[in-house]
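Section 4.2 – Deliverable D4.2 (structural model, holo form)

The reporting period included a commitment to supply a predicted holo structure for the target in complex with iron/sulfur cluster. Inputs used:
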Amino acid sequence: MKGAILFDSTKCIGCEACVAACKEKNNLPAMIDPKLTAYTWTVVEQRNTAFIRRLCMHCESPTCASVCPVEAFRKEPSGPVIYDASRCIGCRYCIMACPFDVPKYQWDRAVPIVQKCDMCADRIKAGQQPACAAVCPTGATIFGDRDEMIQEARARLEAAPKAYVPKIYGLEEVGGTSVLMLSSIPFASLGIRPDLPLTPLPALTWKALSKVPDIVGVGGALLYGIWWITNRRIRVQEALAQEAAKKG
Ligand code: SF4
Ligand code: SF4
Ligand code: SF4
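Output (structure tokens):
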């Protein structure tokens, strides 16, 4: 099954139970930042009279993965786009490339890593739904097979055409996403980008990045690059081990 989250803004009451569940599930600090940060992986924003969730859109062809020179990001067949901190070299191309401004860096840490929603990939693997979908009291956030979520979204649009703008956001944007959205007001009014192409971005992004010098060159620069990456990976591993030990 390829999973997807369906968020229906018309059903959202702004209770932030999804945010709290995400914090708890991922051992993140309880304080909710107003925007996505390395420590707040989803937020609920009020725009006009409606609420909108922000989280990783889990693109079908993720730009974060296509620009990462060391394959620290990958799209799982079950839907989530996941990040492997042990591979990351800290170049932050993913942060620059994401069309939804999602990945965030731990700027306050001695050994920073990138952080973002992972769609609760471990829960999905265990046959459970993401924590945010499991707690939503109104059904504004639900999870299921992507094709079924699309069918459900279409059924809602057909059943109450006056309650929605006639669009499933994420069906085609940037080649499709595994987070789909419905709304009663134009998505632009919710701060969701209406201008994204309906084809995957990776090819475009590679063209832009080809103008950025490679992180490793030849000769001395190559040796320094290898040393730096190896050293960083060791430091990331140590930092992750220390964090895991603290959590017990
Ligand atoms: S929303 Fe951004 S971080 Fe999430 S999968 Fe798409 S490109 Fe990657
Ligand atoms: S899917 Fe999981 S990681 Fe993503 S916002 Fe929901 S609870 Fe957080
Ligand atoms: S838990 Fe459901 S209703 Fe509450 S803010 Fe999140 S999406 Fe909206």
